[in-house]
Amino acid sequence: MILTTKRIGRQRRLAAGLVITAVVALIAIVGPWLAPYGETEIVGKPFTMEGGWLGTDYLGQDVWSRVLAGGGPILVTAVAATAFGMVLGIVIGVVAAYAGGWLDEAIMRLNDVALAFPQILLALLVLTAVDQPAAWMIVLLVGVSHAPRVARVARGVALGIVSRDYVHSAEALGESRLRVLAAEVLPNMSAPLLAEAGLRLTYSIGMVAGIGFLGFAANPGAADWGQMINENRLALLVQPWGVLAPVLVIGVFTVGTNLMADGIAQLSGRGE
């Protein structure tokens, strides 16, 4: 399935998801240049409506400026983690489906063991063992936590493809297994994997924000949507915007990615 402009236009759910996601991503990219104050600049007393139109946070920093500055790191981390998890999971799932037999059974039973671990628990177990987590470490942990779920989806899709005649024809012509996978199997898995990628991105945003909320952000001094919720939660009744603003932005982005995933799934289900 190729996502053309015409097909996207016919699928309102997908179009709406793309617009919402693009708007939030654009805000995260250009936000630091639009912010009226620096992300660590003190503009007034803590938890007041001084400074910008959303007031100040627990240190007296402008909430609106920190919201604009805090999106880039969390979105980059979430996208990178999703990409890593998708690649790793697809490799595991496709190899298992194509190999078949005892190797397929062994890979998927190990995959089931990995599925038994809660995603956030694996990340916290590692992050609590280091003094200050780096961004690449969070990407790695979130991506690895996605891989077992992606692998199961990829294997299920690949099982319906590896037995097709065109795959057997390629093998009969002497094509290498790697070339058969790259040229015959993977291109025909694009639609369900795109839908799964949208779903994984949704979970990545939640996990990265949750890690920041629990105090494991890669840069504790910088603006971070998840970290902002934790920093300002004690004064929620006094100055709610320090918490509500990042929550709303994360929620809107999550809605957008979910709509994209649902729209792609509906298009693939109709064979468009």
UniProtKB/TrEMBL annotation:
Residue intervals passing through the bilayer: 14-35, 74-98, 110-128, 197-218, 238-261
A Pfam family hit: OppC_N
Keywords, sorted A to Z: Cell membrane, Membrane, Transmembrane, Transmembrane helix, Transport
Membrane topology summary: Multi-pass membrane protein
Subcellular localization(s) per the UniProt record: Cell membrane
Classification via InterPro entries: BP-dependent_transpt_permease, MetI-like, MetI-like_sf, OppC_N
Stretches assigned to the ABC transmembrane type-1 domain: 75-261
Family: Belongs to the binding-protein-dependent transport system permease family.
Name of the featured protein: ABC transporter permease
